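Sample entry (128 residues):
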Amino acid sequence: MSENNYYPSESELEILQVLWEEEPATVRTVHEALAREKDVGYTTTLKQMQRMLEKGVLRRIEKGRVHYYQTAVKGPAVRQSLLQRLLKNAFGGSAVELALHALGQSRPGLEELEELERLIQQKKKEQK
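Predicted structure, serialized as tokens:
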């Protein structure tokens, strides 16, 4: 499985996010984390994780009678892949358009705006 070309579905991404924070984890652990946010059945979580295992996105470790799952893909690579796809498909490849849209739709805090200003100043220096 190439992390750079993997575009998880929404439900796969939810499972991955739980595992990136708590791996290795059992299906029960993942299910309980997901159930705090939405109504999802245990067997639905189990089946989704089995499919992800078959795709090579997850790995299973057996310790006695307990099965633990961990990710075979890394968070930063998957996020980068998703971001590149979003940039290309929704914003014509323009990171500036994405940033303007995101800032227009949210209420960034003062610290976030200062961080953004630092990034802009850094990018300006790199252009010189």
